[in-house]
Amino acid sequence: LKVVSPALVLPLVTGSHVDDGSKDAKVFFDQVDDSQPLDTTVWNSLLSYLEEQGIGIESFDKDKQRLVTDWVVVKEILDDHWYSWTSVERDTSQRFEFDLEMKAHGRTATLNVHLVDYQEKQGQKVVAVKTDVDARAKEVDILNKVIGHYEYQIRVADAKRLREIRRGMQLSIGLDEEDAPAFIIDSNYDTAWPRVLLVLRKLGFDVKDYDKSNGLLFVKYNGTESGWWDSLWSSDVNALPLDKQEYRFRVEEVGEKTSLTVLDNESKPFTQEQLSGLYDVFARVMADDNLDI
After folding, report:
1. 140 and 257, same domain (yes or no)
2. pTM for the whole structure
3. Which tens digits make up the pLDDT trace of 43-81?
4. Which of its termini does the chain have fewer beta carbons within 10 Å around, N or C?
């Protein structure tokens, strides 16, 4: 009698979860990255895993959210009986079907795996077919490998994005989408947004509230905090010609770049002259490669 522990689906990806006690090999993914549709993200990760493992695809219908793999073949060399010096080759071949179910709101997806076919040979003899094996164990095994690959891709992407955020960005003065004077950051919106938060903190702004979807930041300028020893010998190089009061910043996507518009507490944009007075300090800190995160 073969006794093994039940196969468990491991929801390693941020926003993923499982149904406790479910007999199906499935995992739920919630949308955490709005850069592309959730189903596209899941399918791209699955296709990447199959390609990396050299697993072919028999059919893939994106409209029906269904993919069937080609045969996944594993070859092993087994020792024969203890009294024999011979060995025997074992081939296991299996095919899987992946189905993706999307909620109507499009922000939750369920990835299901089914073992379509299975065959095991020892030498030239077929010793097992699908009805002879624990199908769920096979399904959970490949599902966990797909989830692990998905989680690894996210970690790689996060590390890359973190490096981009830490890397200095060039700043110039131009116009935003409303033709108001604005700083122009040489970076895309998703990377520039967290960079702006770091720069504002470095320059002595306290972010009271923000709305990334609308690109708005509500701040109060408190001035930078420098040690008493530094103040004895030099003025604060990060000091800005601003009153210590509330301001607003508007962050917008401008093609492949990002605009940063400085507003007073009544949402009136700074003039070109006012913006020029802030430029040197903003440009230097924005270009710094060593801002703390």
Report:
1. no
2. 0.75
3. 999 999 999 999 999 999 999 999 999 999 887 765 555
4. N
Largest CA distance in the chain: 93
The pairs formed by 132-135 with CB atoms below 8 angstroms and a separation of 24 or more are 134/7
H/E element holding 69?
A: strand 66-69
Cα(first)–Cα(last) distance of the chain, in Å? 55
The domain containing residue 233 runs over which residues?
168-286
pLDDT tens, position by position, 216-236? 999 999 987 555 444 444 347
Question: Which residues are within 8 A (CB) of 254 and not within 5 positions of it... i.e. 6 or more apart?
Answer: 176, 177, 184
CA-based angle 250:252:256, to the nearest 5?
Answer: 150
**Domain at 227, CATH number:** 3.30.310.170
Domain count along the chain: 2
Domain boundary residue among 130, 164, 198?
Answer: 164
Q: Does residue 262 sit in the same domain as residue 231?
A: yes
Cβ neighbours of 261 (radius 10 Å): 22
The DSSP string of 230-248 is HHHHS--TT--S--SSEEE
Burial of 153 (0-12, 13-18, 19+ CB in 10 A): middle
